[in-house]
Design brief:
This protein is α/β, with parallel strands linked by helices. It has 8 helices and 18 strands. Helix content is 27%, strand content 25%. Strands 1, 2, 8, 9, 10, 11, 17 and 18 form an 8-stranded mixed sheet that branches. Strands 5-6-4-13-14-15-12-16 form an 8-stranded mixed sheet, with helices on both faces. Strands 3-7 form a two-stranded antiparallel ribbon. Strand 10 and strand 11 form a beta hairpin.
């Protein structure tokens, strides 16, 4: 089933979502379920960062110091994932590749082991369930691990989903819920008497709406004519990812997601049920560059080989680079801005796939009531309005040179 595409004369909706990645799509789907006429503006719905993401639903092993507030939102979204996946599968008729397979985070040297011990202590203080394992116990769980593994954390509550299947399912679910797709670039925001009234596309089509949601991922700061005090401070963070294929003769290669810190760099291996193995991911502050580099591929394969030596025997089937939408505090911006009629759903950084269920629910609530539910109030876009991290007029001008 292909998304319906508007004609230039179709211009009015209750909700206009700028961006057709997984965050924009789940927002549109939930809005349509609430009875709101909804339009999504994107040249390629279902594209974006989801095409590169590995799909780890790792609320526990993704815990970082200073991000305990975000942890609550991550855990809430992880709790909703099984029901969300079942509902979306039924609504779309598509399998999402959702697996409750758990994660094993391992240490390859004494420094990594000390770091993991500290992470385990933080997890325990935060009330999270994780189990410390010896190196031998790690290898019993995953025999392909290197003999030098010194210990690890077993987290059965961290799951996975296939982001590409998730995005495709959301496109179908939106179509079946009556969402209209306008396949084009949003060029500028329409503001009439201090209220957002929709957008104008690159081909000059005017699309009006009672409420506009800016959900364009790392491109969210590039929509022209958004007032400086509400323009989201989103930056692109490059990640390179490899995909390999596990031949049937090698199966089972890994039974769960395996991750580690190798020489200070993070690496993860995510096995899919269809035999695909995703290896990632670099984290590079290089602006809008999405070049796959020899150095990035080499570092990922080198680190993955130290973790699982047998990986070098597998066929390499794809190399990709994408852009995560980073925010100043690594947390999303959700809900109403200071400009009436404009809401944000962006800045999810490395947790976009994990936060998909809760984001859809939060945005549906905000679009129908004008308020954020309790779990999302710390993530209001207004927290940056008076912050030194907010973009200056000069930065805003630079960000809006290209359409979204």
């Amino acid at each position: 089933m292909h998304p319906r595409t508007t004609t230039p004369s179709a211009t009015t909706a209750d909700v206009l979502v700028v961006g057709g990645g997984i965050i924009g799509l789940v927002t549109a789907w939930r809005a349509a379920q609430r009875g709101l006429s909804t339009t999504v503006v994107d040249p390629e719905p279902g594209g974006g960062a989801a095409q590169v993401a590995a799909g780890m639903l790792a609320a526990v092993t993704e815990l970082h110091y200073g991000e305990q507030t975000l942890l609550g939102l991550n855990l809430e979204s992880a709790r909703r994932y099984p029901d969300f996946a079942a509902e979306l599968t039924e609504a779309s008729g598509r399998d999402l590749g959702y697996r409750a397979c758990g994660t094993l985070a391992v240490a390859l040297d004494s420094d990594d082991r000390a770091h993991l011990r500290e992470l385990h202590a933080l997890q325990r203080r935060s009330g999270l369930a994780s189990e410390w394992l010896s190196g031998r116990d790690c290898r019993r769980l995953e025999p392909m691990l290197a003999p030098g593994v010194r210990g690890g954390l077993r987290v059965d509550g961290d799951h996975q989903v296939d982001p590409r299947r998730l995005a495709a399912a959301l496109v179908v679910a939106c179509e079946r819920a009556g969402v209209v797709f306008h396949r084009g670039w949003a060029e500028r925001l329409s503001v009439v008497r201090d209220r957002a009234r929709g957008i104008v596309t690159a081909d000059g089509t005017e699309l009006t709406a009672d409420q506009t949601v800016l959900a364009a991922g790392s491109l969210s700061g590039r929509l022209a004519d958004v007032p400086d005090d509400v323009l989201p401070p989103v930056r692109p963070v490059k990640g390179q990812v490899l995909r390999l294929t596990v031949p049937k003769a090698y199966a089972p290669f890994l039974s769960r997601t395996v991750r580690a810190v190798v020489r200070g760099g993070h690496v993860y291996l995510v096995p899919r049920e269809n035999g695909e193995l995703v290896v990632g991911a670099t984290s590079e502050e290089l602006g809008w560059d999405t070049t796959v580099t020899a150095g990035g591929v080499y570092e990922l394969l080198r680190d993955a080989h130290e973790l699982v030596p047998g990986i070098t025997e597998l066929p390499l089937t794809e190399t990709r680079a994408g852009l995560r939408p980073g925010s100043p505090d690594n947390a999303p911006m959700l809900g109403p801005t200071r400009l009436a009629g404009l809401q944000l759903a962006t800045g999810h950084f490395r947790n976009g796939v994990l936060l998909t269920p809760v984001t859809g629910d939060v945005m549906a609530h905000a679009l129908t009531t004008g308020e954020l539910p309790d779990e999302a109030r710390p993530f209001t876009p207004r927290r940056f309005a008076d912050s030194p991290c907010a973009p200056s007029p000069a930065t805003s001008a630079a960000l809006t040179e290209q359409p979204v």
